[in-house]
Description:
- By secondary structure, this protein is of the alpha/beta class.
- About 35% of the residues lie in helices and about 15% in strands.
- It is globular and about 45 Å long.
Amino acid sequence: MSRRTDALTELADAVLAVERPHPVRVAIDGCSAAGKTTLADELADTLRARTGREIIRAGIDYFKRAPELRTAYPIESPESYYLDTWDHDAIRERLLMPLGPGGDRRYTTAIGEPNGRPLSESSVHTADPDAVLLADGAFLQVPALIEHWDLRIYAHVSFDEVLRRGTARDQAWMPSAAAAEERYRTRYIPGERMYVDQIQPRSQAQIVVDNEDFAHPTITYRLANPDP
């Protein structure tokens, strides 16, 4: 097996070791272009091959505020990106709390498009009692959300790698590679530095995946099976 396959097997073991009387809510946190979505999708596939439990995938980018509601800071500022882009109340009340202690297991995985434009209608689903939620996104360990996760995984890459990967990816929908690089240098990376400095997400996470070398991730377990 490849090192990445081995790592996914280890992560699946850690997820399945978490026991709760409600669905297990797993955060896959990390900076832009850290490989969070790919990691979550691969882990979901690995878990589905291992267990008959329902595996729910959610992308937290589908819980962004509409741009016109982001009024606390200048819209292109790092502060707006970090503190005013995501609707933490909706993440908590429509996704995490329904799947948590005392919840009714009726949840939604989106309130809008990744550009923040609202959906005309949000579908409501009912989770199995022993379901596993894998949610990937940025800033998942902020105070408004951290207590609502049963397992926190942090995908780590250096800011140099964030810049390299993010520019390569986002130039497809931005005017040019230079425009994408400028967006990362002036907005995304400064906002993510604020998060890293204030929250220390690598220290808060129970599992850290060093994803700098995509084919050869390394895993550090801070607490493989956290207490309820």
